[in-house]
Write a structure and sequence with these properties.
7 helices, about 55% helix, two-stranded antiparallel sheet, binds adenosine-5'-diphosphate, membrane, alpha+beta, single chain
């Protein structure tokens, strides 16, 4: 309103300038859109063949029992790398979708305790770690995208596994405060320096390449967590102390299944 009024009475140079800015802005957003589209297409195109490669590797590993240890190891490494890349592509796809507003969350009512139990039993199997659930409420009801929330918790547990010693436990705490469901993922690992804590949710951000390289991530896990959780109307925060451990807290709006 007021800006337009000002522009209407502005000298022609200012009007020209405003027009130029408008044009620049629309070109910029066009090229952003193209970049998003590009990332999304490439991710999609790569994911399909890689999934096939991964499937074949898995089936050879399952069926061939006459492999030499060297062959076995080579195939296992190939399968792991394929898996890691598939996950990266999935993350890039999800972020590109979220950016363009095409990330559709299918929210449905569910019991949080069941979802957490399912995720924990999965994570225990593939990590071989001690993962405990501490819950103050029998059944906390939330309306969320089941698979996306599973992904969120798996990302957080993956990190807890990666950034703590194998003999330390990982604890998932569940409780409800009023209209809020709270999930905490706690580890007793290396911790995150205070000055980095606000940046770890950024895309491709990793605290320390030297420290983090061996854990083989891309710095996308937490930006996925944030995107999904906020998409479900929740929040995610971190509290951490060096050499003591980290606690990631997710809050989600609780609901009643009877509603
Ligand atoms: P990455 O793939 O590098 O793990 P994330 O986005 O999941 O990417 O995490 C970003 C960075 O935050 C990590 O590189 C790591 O430095 C730090 N970080 C995340 N979770 C933990 C944790 N539980 N303990 C210590 N550091 C963590």
């Amino acid at each position: 309103g007021q800006a337009q009024l000002y522009l209407d009475n502005a000298p022609s140079e200012v009007k020209e300038l405003a027009k130029t800015f408008d044009m620049m802005l629309s070109r910029l957003s066009q090229s952003w859109e193209q970049e998003r589209q590009f990332v999304s297409n490439v991710s999609h195109e790569l994911r399909t063949p890689l999934t096939i490669v991964h499937g074949y590797l898995q089936s050879v590993l399952r069926r061939q029992n006459n492999l030499t240890p060297t062959q076995q190891e080579a195939l296992e490494t190939a399968a792991l790398e394929a898996e890691r890349t598939i996950r990266l592509l999935q993350h890039l796809l999800d972020l590109a979708r979220a950016d363009s507003g095409y990330l559709h969350l299918h929210k449905e009512p569910c019991v949080l305790n069941d979802l957490v139990a399912e995720v924990v039993s999965m994570a225990k199997k593939y990590s071989g770690r001690t993962i405990k659930i501490e819950s103050t409420t029998q059944s906390i009801e939330v309306k969320i995208d089941y698979n996306r929330l599973k992904q969120v918790l798996l990302n957080l547990i993956d990190n807890a596994v990666k950034y703590s010693e194998a003999d330390t436990p990982i604890i998932l705490k569940l409780n409800q405060q009023g209209q809020e469901a709270i999930i905490q993922v706690c580890d007793q690992g290396c911790g995150i320096p205070l000055q980095e804590q606000s940046r770890i949710f950024e895309r491709f951000y990793r605290v320390d390449e030297a420290r983090d390289r061996s854990t083989g991530g891309y710095g996308l896990g937490l930006s996925i967590v944030k995107t999904f959780v906020e998409g479900m109307g929740g929040t995610v925060t971190v509290r951490s102390r060096m050499d003591q451990g980290s606690v990631f807290t997710i809050t989600l709006p609780a609901c009643s299944l009877l509603e």
